[in-house]
């Protein structure tokens, strides 16, 4: 036992280094700017029974989703039947995936003929088919309009690609070169992880399995200790989406936290039924919000499955947080972010005398595609940040992706090198954060101009109607806005989720929401706001 204790910290650090290097390798090798520059990808390693062993420090929106993805792969391909050099591929939300552009690659780590772990990489691909370039149609009404749906399949055997699978993939993508390049980046990442973890296993020999179990138990123990520090109670929080892309009616996201002793129940039963539009989030997508929330309780704990042990959760079937097939769900990002924000806000009511103001909860996903004057096609996708909520001792941060979304912005130079688009403005959106003793973080303003040809716009925003709430008398953040300023002077205002066409000379203006403020502007504290109103 003493040997296990001595090895725990070196092994923990070694595991964290392995997954972070997997992440870096994937980003360096990626073809698509959304992964290479924006970091819309993630890496992790698992034990052969499916327990999370370690995860990279980016991207939370994807990291938690790898847990059910691994379970889906193992259900079809048991670990004991895997061989060195095999790789498995999937994106099906009803088999553990998130939405269709997020392809997941899993490689077994084999030592002396036995699978000792699994290396996994997930990456948002530029296009996997469907009714709109970029495979994120904001007006989709079922999964079949969103692209190619892939249940767990064997993609490589003995390191060799199954050409039938490759042919099927490329036939369904508008950017087959990018798709294959990004898949190779994922293969490179999991192969590096497999090599490094196999070497770590050889160095630690016998105690490796026991040390892994001890690290998971340590994460559970520290998370339960953090829960015990807070008095028992029940806390609720509600928020809403600005429609579903098809209907403008608000979509409710409601959570109830019930904390008792060293355990917590998380119940989303008050949330709206599943929607016709694509804001539905599968349980695997919601797992990202849950994992982020539970990790935030004890951030010093080892970065593994142990933090989930104290939690039970309810995601009612047929709801926006657990839709039935064939629901559309490519726009699940806003739902997951507001669900995560709701958990953090509800928890702050019980854990703090000074609850935090709400984050803007917006990660705008923009996919632009089209044809140049000579007919050459182009396509890119990027993520635009918003503002963080303020706290009792600091302003909120401006222009940042909060909670589950820590994707980076795509540099202007990259956008302009990949597409006939000029970015006329990229700036902090002054005045968008809530006013208060501590101001809410401010959103971002981006202005794009199409230089030649024509193109399509798939816009997935949020907070066009609802606002990030202030706390303790602080003001709410400003809502988002988007519009197309036509070359002939016309202005087309876009709703929170929209598809549109534009032509050379047109400008697309996107302004993201600000975070809520903390404390009344005159430095006097008003009565706490009712979080359910």
How would you sum up this structure, described in words?
The chain contains 10 helices and 20 strands. The chain starts with a helix and ends in a 22-residue tail after the last strand. The protein is 28% helix and 24% strand. Strands 2-1-5-4-3-6-7 form a 7-stranded antiparallel sheet, sandwiched between helices. A 5-stranded antiparallel sheet has the order 14-15-20-17-18, covered by helices on one side. The protein is α+β, with helices and mostly antiparallel strands and 533 residues long. Helix 1 (2-29) runs antiparallel to helix 6 (176-204), helix 1 (2-29) packs across helix 7 (208-228) and helix 8 (283-297) runs parallel beside helix 9.
Biggest sheet strand line-up? 2-1-5-4-3-6-7
Low-confidence stretches: 524-533
- Count of extended strands: 20
Average pLDDT for all residues: 94
Largest sheet: 7 strands, antiparallel
Instruction: Give me the strand/helix succession.
Output: HHEEHHEEEEEHHHEEEHEHEEHEEEEEEE
Write down the Rg. Answer: 23 Å
Distance between the termini: 53 Å
As a percent range, the share of strand residues is 15-25%
Helix tally equals: 10
Helix-and-strand structural type: alpha+beta
Q: What is the helix fraction of residues, given as a range? A: 25-40%
Shape: globular
